[in-house]
Amino acid sequence: MHTEGLDADIVIVGAGISGLAAARELAEAGKSVLVLEARDRIGGRIHTIADAMPCAIDLGATEIHGYGSGNPFKAMAKQMQCPIYVPKSDEWSIFTQGRQIPNDQSRKLQRNVEETLFEKAREFAQVEAFPSASNSLGDYLFNETSPLYEGLEGPVDREHATALCNSWCSWTGAPFGDVSLRYWGFDGDFYGTSAYVPDGYAQFVRYIVHEKARLELKHEVISIRLEQGDPPCVYIRASTANGEKVFRAKACICTIPLGVLKAHCPSFGPPLPPRRIAAIQRLGFGSFTKVFISYPRVWWPADAQLLYLIFPPAPEDKEQNAAYSALTAQRAVEVRNLALMHDPPAPVLCLDYGPPAARLIEALPADEIKKALHALLVASIGPGEEDVPKPSACIVSSWNNDPFAMGAYSFIPKASGTGEEWATPLDFVELSKPLWEGRLGFAGEHTELDCWASAHGAMMSGEREANRLLQLLGT
């Protein structure tokens, strides 16, 4: 099957979901495929830890977004006969300073946040107006006449609405003040009800691996270059524990994340065109951190699917420890109750943090985070310290510090106002274009116009590139 003198027909750089999806398509079509992965595991930003807590936890991709509207992971889960959890209720339980906000007030806050962020802001940006490129999503969300504050009485309710809305910056991986309003809602992604995978998203990764695709772990690709000839050949150089290795192929698919590409890794020869480099630098790459904490038993409201904690402002005359300051840098935080996904209930909570808290939390030891987070949970939910067991474990994701990710996912930033060109959705199109007469392809969530910043977008991009190469090279 191998062409003489070549290591494979196609070398794929990266064994995340996009690289593995491409490898599967190509291997099924009879092509010889070699996948090079820098980490000691497959999956990329899909990473399930199965045995460190009472249930599996996903440090990366977690939800099947738009479960009822065509997300391809739904069909895959059905093929796998994989258990799926669809929440019976998406109602928020909001706590602050030891008390639960009354249900009618909580529903009003939830409605205002969800409708403003996911309906009215999109309608304004895509239908009602044509915002300036320098307008941020935050400009719309937090102005005095924003629908976010509609029907709310008094400054406390407005503060709560602001804090709760800002907690959704984990959705973009960037502060809303940095996100472009003009292109909010431009994408054609899957929306609606989300579903969860109780046994972990890594099941999809294992399922998609093709037995005929060769896989090499701990192979960090440092350069990709084209050598002209008849036919041309792509050389991929990788750093390994045993020194550098060079692999030769007819074509290559690069699935390296946008955050790593921004750091000018790997090198390309011929170099990437100036317009490609400009697109890489214009787009944003956000930060998102998950904090998991487990207990011997469930002590929080057992039937609450989503808890939201609103923290009071830090007193100016009192110095806080670093862990407390990091965990409360985001004035409100979403807390998912993983117990409802499992039978028997798994006493585990997951907190989602966006910037700036995400990077602050990742910089601290997990033991310090565990101690401070436990105190915060007790103080916010309020059953009393004597009624709460000590936490068993705490695990913090670390995508910002991961040299093979350097962040979470892409977003479109607002124009900086410096006169330079600003980011647009066309930058995702630019990043998807093949180079070197089609022999160098690119895949990953940052190359999908309609589904950027998603696991399903990454998978779809890998399938797209595989099918393109099959047309180029012939089946």
TrEMBL record:
Cofactor(s) listed: FAD
A GO molecular-function annotation: oxidoreductase activity
GO BP, one annotated term: chromatin remodeling
Superkingdom classification of source: Eukaryota
Domain Amine oxidase: 17-470
Name listed for the protein in its UniProt record: Amine oxidase
EC number assigned by the record: 1.4.3.-
Keywords: FAD, Flavoprotein, Oxidoreductase
Pfam family, one: Amino_oxidase
Family: Belongs to the flavin monoamine oxidase family.
Organism of provenance: Exidia glandulosa HHB12029
Key word GTP-binding present: no
